[in-house]
């Protein structure tokens, strides 16, 4: 009896694995063809200053609307693209589309145009020796001033070869483009790496923000980080802020900026443009207690 149950489980497991492998292969093939079609788009999520309440930047986040499966998360398809060189084509598309969009906003949105666009780089893109040249040619083609572009890299991108990574970062910054470390604190948070790398911003991972208002370990950690990066000239952006209590705690700790559902979700371009034209800043979304007392 037990044996039969065991075998049945085995069959179900194999079936599920088969489905997963099949979906993966299918997505890999179809993603290749989706690049350059309207199945792919960028959504934009505002980053807002905790000091002035103003929107200082927007992050471009890739979306895939699959004809059969519907919307597929980048958390699923980016790793698939990473396994082949497809990520390079995909990354190039994101970079040029995002930069073009930001350049267009300067013409169409006037004073509410975002002055910075944040674009995520995958590890393979970061390791590509052509990257600095590609960035500079995208800036030239789109006319976007270099200081309007910030690139986000995760720790996995420079874990392997610290010297090489630092060199790549320097050549990117020589273009006038700024750099952020994304998901900081989610992995083997390399505090030691901070003064080896010429970075402008640390984006503090959501996992560190989640319990911040309970004044436990996370708050102490973040306080230490705030003090430390101040001396290095690095700014902090808190990711995944979902409540007023978190916002308040971050403000008290001296964190410069935040990004999260509490202020705004990632939006398609039309919605973002409407949001930028009508938004009253952070002040308007803070209920009751004043986040900006003076
Ligand atoms: P990320 O770069 O850390 O982007 C932030 C993610 O957190 C986004 O997920 C965003 O929708 C989500 N988020 C923002 N605020 C909140 C919040 O308050 N609560 C919660 N629970 N989540 C929040 P998304 O768009 O699903 O993207 C996931 C990841 O996929 C990104 O994480 C990034 O690593 C990767 N990704 C997205 N677009 C690109 C791209 O164009 N290129 C590359 N290489 N990676 C990308
Ligand atoms: Mg990011
Ligand atoms: Mg992140
Ligand atoms: Mg992430």
TrEMBL record:
User: What residue range is the signal peptide?
Assistant: none
**Taxonomic lineage of this organism?**
Bacteria, Pseudomonadati, Planctomycetota, Planctomycetia, Pirellulales
* Superkingdom of origin organism: Bacteria
Query: What species is given as this protein's source?
Result: Novipirellula herctigrandis
Per UniProt, residues of the EAL domain are: 24-280
- Location of this fragment in the whole protein: 645 to 938 of 953
Q: What is this protein called?
A: Phytochrome-like protein cph2
Q: Its encoding gene is what?
A: cph2_1
